[in-house]
Structure formats: structure tokens, C-alpha cells
UniProtKB/TrEMBL annotation:
Family (UniProt): Belongs to the glycosyl hydrolase 13 family.
SMART domains (alphabetical): Aamy
GO biological process: oligosaccharide catabolic process
InterPro entries: DUF3459, GH, GH13_cat_dom, O16G_dom_2
MF (Gene Ontology): alpha-amylase activity
UniProt protein name: Alpha-glucosidase
UniProt-listed Pfam families: Alpha-amylase (PF00128), DUF3459 (PF11941)
CDD domains: AmyAc_OligoGlu_TS (cd11332)
Domain Glycosyl hydrolase family 13 catalytic as annotated: residue spans: 14-408
Amino acid sequence: MDIHHWWRDAVIYQVYVRSFLDSTGDGIGDLAGVRAGLPYLKKLGVDGIWLSPFYPSPQHDHGYDVADYRGVDPVFGDLAEFDRLVASARRLGVRVLLDIVPNHCSIEHPWFREALASRPDSPAARARFHFADGRGPDGSEPPNNWHAMFGGPAWTRVTEADGRPGQWYLHMFTPEQPDWNWRNPEVAAEFDRTLRFWLDRGVDGFRIDVAAGLFKHPGLPDSPDPEADARTRDSVNPLAWNQPEVHDVWRHWRAVCEEYTERDGRERLLVGEVSVPTAREHALYVRPDELHQAFFFDLLSAPWNADAFRKVIAEAMQDIAGTGSTVTWVLNNHDQVRTVTRYGEPATEGSGLGAARARAAALMMLALPGAAYIYQGEELGLPEVVDLPDDVLTDPIFRRTGSRARIRDGCRVPLPWSGQASPFGFTSGAEGAKPWLPQPEWFAEHSTDRALADTRSFWHLYRDGLQLRAALPQLGEGALRWLDTPPGVLAFARGGEGDDFVCAVNFGTAPTPAPVTGTPLLSSGPCPTGVLPGSTAAWWIGDGATP
């Protein structure tokens, strides 16, 4: 069977459902809103969408605390609405990926409620999770010294049915998110049923949350450096992360997906959220019989520096592309400060240094070999909302760190669709309806209607870049060849020798002679022939792109 490996150079748009578009007027985005927005995404030119969790959940971590993996929370709709969404996307040629959360569930999950109700000396229900006796007098201290990634200890003690303090359970994020024990075969079987449930409903694959974290060291020993674990949101505890047994899970899930592909020739995708120290370790997750792809976060975290970007790209091309997979590039997602702000943009503006760098980075990412993921609102040039009042913040990290870490709410503020007053077309409710997070007044300048009307906007830059990416045979997953450049400039050619496509990025603030000849095809800023203005990127095509 001739299989089209669509995912290898796909561009996927991340839909954070509760902040995309509200169809009911309750101030929370929903699946019907996503369906209504599909023509907008089709016009933008993406190949597919990744939906954040919409499953039944008490929403302690906005759906990443799942109470039922095979349902839809009423705030987002129902299964019938989900089916309509998938059918509409299929008609438009837009693929649909779901966010699946296999590392942990909700304290409201039936199996965890069963575990809490069970006796410690009847361990079958508790064996699906990590329950353990405490240390110290009367077991009053946690079983080990692990820290949760969202702050505080990674263990919570339960109160037994007779009212006495009892065992402790492990949660590497919040106490409302107990970790599954993947050494228990019941857990693996349950997720197998979940995969098949959604594949049978027509989804095109899954984004896998915390894909490196499923297995913990079997003895649950103390961390060698608990102080370091407590300082960072990105776990450095090698005993709770990146254990070798996790690769068997991905081999099985890959086999399940290929079973469906063999039925109809439509390839399903597994893309993992993999946070590991090096590109070489990252490559282990995308071997031919494991995940198709895994997010490569090093580009996101690289400082704005030509040498740093070149090093990150070169290592990814060497270690990851060498597995037979393709690199999965990201500049942002629902856990990060928005790109414009991260690169230096004041929160209430959209035309300064941060915006110029974000436009340049977008064109560079779309010119690289492999796949790319775009977080909603990046195509509008949205800055981070940094001045949200404390009393509206909902991120559990803020609560777990004693109100010190303001990390994720600012990038999750609902999208502005209209340039009118708040709620900027996000909600269809009556006048005065309020989105679940407040939108600043300056959001009007970044609304979709204004962006579509302005050919100089971020939106048109992304749309034009996506169209060229689809049209030019040099792009996609082909080769990359570095070009010699002056300091502060990065340039690469795509395709074989005699390429007529080059991406050049000036990381400095002063204009510099372009390192190639030819005519600018697409630029992130004003780009006269032969010159790269400061902090800009240009796509070039012409007479061979001769260095």
C-alpha cells in the first residue's frame, strides 16, 4: 500500500480550545467554536489542528487532569459535536490531533476514587497508581524527597476510611493529578482502549503529554539533587523521567496506529511532548518503530543569537533527522511566554524589536526541513498579557509557588476576533459577556479582522509563508546546506547544489549586505535587494542563490 507520510513536513495549528472561540456565551471556548473557526484556519493554510484536552475534568489544570478519557466535558460540548467537528475538518482537508494525557489523571477519575476507598492491605486498586507508606514516625514524612514540577512536594498523604492518616500517593504535577503506574498492565490496557475509541471516531493522531515521564524508577529512591528539582519547572530528576521502559509503550502505540493505517491508507500520527537534555536522547523517541515525531524545544529556548540558532538546528538535523523521522519545530505553545514578548516586545505594542524578531523567527521556522507547530494567536503577533490581576489567575503553578510564578495565564487569554470592544468577538453571549480570562484593551489592534485586512500583518506573513512552503519543491523535508555569512547572520539553502531558495536571518540590529544574490521572494520586513535590515528574515529566490 502506498502511504502518504503527510506528517513529515506538516504545519499543525495548536488550538487551546477554551480560548479559541466561544459559541455558547459562557465565556469559555468550545468544540462548536473550533468548528466555526475551521474556515479561518483553512484560509491560513495549515495542514491540521491539535486540540487541547476537552475531556470531562474538574479543571484543576485546565483539562490536563482527566476524569474520563473517552468523553467530552459539557462545558466544551458533547461527542456528537466532536463528531461534527471531525467531519467538517475532513471536508476541508484539515487533520485533527487530540491531546492525550497518559502520565496522570484527575483525582475525580473513577479508578482513583476507587483507590482512595480501598484498604491499604487490599492493594489491587491502588496498584494502578503510586501509593506508598511514608517514612519517619507513623509514616508522617513522604516516601522520598521528590519535588513536583509545579512546586511543592510530589507526594500527598491520604486519610483512610477510619479517619487515620494513611499512605501517600505520587503526583509529579499537582495533588489533583495522581500519576499512573505504568508497570500495572491494567493501565496499559485502559489506554489501549482509549486510543482505539478516538481512532474509531476518525481522529488523525495524538499529541502525547509528558511523553518521557510515564515510568518512574521502580524503587522510588531519593533524588540525588532535590534542591535542583525544586528550582525548575523542567524536571531534572532522572529517577522520575526518561526511564527505558517508556519506549515499549510507544512501540505498542505505533503498532496500534499502523493497524488503522493498514485498513484505509490514512496514516495516523503520534507526536510526543519530550523534554530531555540532548538532541541525541530526543532521537531515541522517534526511532522508526516508536513515535513519528517529538517536539524539539531547543529552538524555542535558544537565545536570539545566530550562532545559538545554528547550533540548535545543526544538532537537530544530525541527531533527529538521522533516525528517519523529521524534526518537529516549535516557537511557542500554551506553556510558554508568547514569542513577541519573549524576544523583547513590550506587552502593549506590536511593532517593536520583539515583533520584528518574532516575524523573522516564523519565516525561518517555516523554511526549515521537517514539521512545524504554530500556537494559536502567534499568527496575529499577540504579545503576552503580563498585567493580569492576581485574583483572575488560574494557573496551578501560581498557586503552588506561593503566588510567585506567573507563567502560563498570559499566553492563554482568549483570542480577539473583532476589533470592537471586549470580548472582541470571542464570545457570542449578550453584551457584557466576559471571557474566562480578561482581555486587555490593546487586543483590538491584534484582532483577526484587522489582521486579515492589513497585508503587512503577522497573519499575512504566516499565510504567505505557508503558501510558498506548500508550493516550492525545495522545502518540506529536503536537505539543508549552510552558507557562509558575516557575523550575526544565519543563512541556509534548501535542496541540492544550485539551490534557488535561501533563508537569511540578520540577528543584529544594523542592516548588513545580504549573503546571497537574487530577488527577495518573501521578507519579514522591508527588504531592498542586496540588504538585510536589522532583525529581519528574507526568503530568496532568483539566479541560483549564489553565496
